[in-house]
Task: structure prediction
Amino acid sequence: MANSSKSAQFLMESRFADQVATDDGATMYDLGVAYSTGSGGKRLDLVEAHKWFNLAAVAGFLPAQIARAEVAGDMTAREIAEAQRQARAFLYGNMPQMRAA
Result:
């Protein structure tokens, strides 16, 4: 059962990465909003929010830059560093077309 669960998780993540890769940043921004407010079925998690706002900003979605700065004001330097690490890992692991940008 654990094996099929891991396979399902991998499939969901790869399909999500495909969707995000063709997005203009709006989907990533919406995820950041959900994590920053604890809405849309997401738990409040500022590290995740910062990560998604950062990825949306890299994709060129300007409102994400503002939201990222606002969330960062409520985070420690360590939390921000972790969010940036996770964003880089996502960017370089899942989104080859954004790497070239």
In short: The mean pLDDT is 83. The first helix runs from residue 2 to 21.
